[in-house]
Specification:
The complex is a heterodimer of chains A (232) and B (229).
Chain A (H helix, E strand, L loop, with lengths): L5 H24 L12 H29 L2 H33 L7 H21 L4 H27 L24 H43 L1
Chain B lengths: L1 H26 L1 H21 L3 H33 L2 H7 L4 H31 L6 H25 L5 H28 L4 H30 L2
Classes of the chains: A mainly alpha (232), B mainly alpha (229).
């Protein structure tokens, strides 16, 4: 395996700096929200984690389709890398959401459409990891993984719609009139800037992690191949 | 040329489904296991929820669909395990038909098994809890819901039997993706049982229909990747 390419090294440093930068913006630059005070600050990282989590699952579904079409194992490596990273980010989004919900709604959890769908999404990809663990043949593992990401990627939006038919209380931050009634808030320009900076920072962190994980996946593939050669 | 090929495709589907039904008619191992299990689940719910007449009315759709879903995984697992264990699947794969014919054949027999269990569970439940469940709308929902459940279940059970952890894997794979079916079926069943206006049940019916169509189409497209050797 070759050493890390220069771009990746730059991204490593950039990820660290951007994370520090977003922390500074959240705590020093963004103004305090009038009603919720410091509690609202968790929102910036909550939304960034949720965004990166979703992004990863979309990347995984895309990689799954590409694998089924091209039959190239490199797409399988991308797929599993994206799912693994997103599982962690999405879990953080769920936990930070709960921490925010406790003072705002008075409860850690409600069975609202977005919350329930988030929990089910996390379960789908946990099931995906369990499925992969049970298969030794790399080709079959890749095929089944791709099929399952496809099924999961299509069922989750339908789940969201079906649960949405019940009333939802998650605040839709942008462009709803009843937002404040649900615990939402109007965003000052500085808040918006902070939010977009955090989204950007986490996207870069995601790309960096994905790259590292894909490199790791390739190494694992080589190890598997060498094991097979040694056995013959 | 083309009509002949089409009729061969449907013949293959029916032949596979018929093979399952004939085998089941002789052994009865799958249906009896599903039925006893379904009745046990209902029995457990009786104690777990203390089903007095008031609770019954609200809880019945949920209990019915939980029972169907649990008994369903039992049947799906077994029906694919039989194919895998005795090498029947390899034989089926050698047959000169499109792979998706195998999927539709298994789907058909799984659906029949599930409907048989449901036609026995429903009257038993009606008698045990003194509720009239013979509402035409409810029967329609059970048909649509079971179809969606089995459409995804047949595809996923074909995957699950080929893994090391096959006995435990199917429900874990199936339940998170089949939630729309269960949500919509429970809501629509409750609507019909309580005699709510049809316009209010319609959205749930739409979800069931969309789910059934979308997932049958996907399974049709990806099944060859699942049984490839």
């Amino acid at each position: 395996m070759k050493a890390q390419p220069l771009v990746l090294k730059i991204m490593n440093v950039a990820s660290g700096l951007l994370l520090a930068g977003s922390l500074a913006m959240v705590f020093l630059y963004a103004p305090l929200e009038a009603v919720m005070n410091h509690v609202q600050k968790i929102f910036y990282f909550h939304i960034s984690n949720a965004w990166v989590g979703m992004l990863g699952f979309i990347v995984a579904a895309f990689a799954g389709i590409m694998f089924l079409v091209k039959k190239d194992l490199k797409w399988d490596i991308v797929e599993v890398a994206a799912v693994e990273i997103s599982l962690v980010f999405f879990l953080i989004a769920i936990v930070t959401g709960s921490i925010w919900a406790r003072p705002s709604w008075g409860t850690w959890w409600t069975w609202d459409a977005r919350l329930t769908t988030a929990a089910i999404l996390e379960m789908v990809y946990l099931a995906y990891m369990l499925l992969r663990q049970g298969i030794e043949d790399p080709d079959r593992r890749a095929r089944f993984g791709a099929v399952y990401t496809l099924i999961g990627g299509i069922s989750v939006p339908i789940t969201f719609v079906s649960i949405r038919l019940w009333q939802t209380i998650h605040p839709a931050i942008i462009g709803t009139e009843s937002a404040s009634a649900q615990g939402g808030f109007a965003m000052a320009p500085a808040m918006l800037q902070t939010m977009f900076f955090c989204l950007f920072a986490f996207s870069v962190i995601f790309a960096t992690l994905l790259w590292h994980r894909v490199r790791l996946g390739r190494l694992a593939q080589q190890v598997e191949l060498q094991k097979l050669e040694a056995m013959q | 040329m083309k009509p002949r090929r089409n009729s061969g495709y449907f013949k293959a589907i029916l032949a596979i489904a018929w093979k399952d039904l004939a085998a089941e008619l002789r052994s009865r191992e799958l249906l009896s296991a599903m039925l006893v299990f379904a009745l046990l689940v209902i029995l457990i719910f009786n104690f777990a929820l203390e089903l007095d007449p008031g609770t019954r009315r609200i809880a019945t759709p949920g209990i019915l669909w939980t029972t169907f879903a649990f008994a369903g995984t039992l049947g799906l697992n077994r029906s694919m395990a039989i194919e895998k264990d005795r090498g029947c699947l390899d034989g089926l794969l050698l047959a000169p038909v499109d792979r998706s014919a195998i999927y539709f054949g298994k789907l058909l027999s799984n659906l029949v098994f599930m409907l048989i269990v449901e036609t026995i569970v429903l009257p038993v439940y009606s008698v045990l809890y003194n509720l009239n469940l013979f509402v035409p709308g409810l029967i329609g929902i059970i048909l649509l819901g079971s179809f969606g459940y089995v459409a995804v279940g047949t595809l996923l059970s074909s995957m699950a039997v080929q893994t090391r952890t096959r006995d435990v894997l199917l429900p874990i794979l199936l339940f998170p993706v089949v939630i729309p079916v269960l949500v919509a079926a429970v809501k629509a069943s409750a609507g019909f049982l309580e005699g709510i206006a049809f316009a209010e049940i319609l959205p749930w019916l739409n979800i069931l229909l969309v789910y059934d169509v979308v997932f049958t189409a996907i399974a049709f497209m990806v099944y060859e990747f699942v049984v490839e050797e």
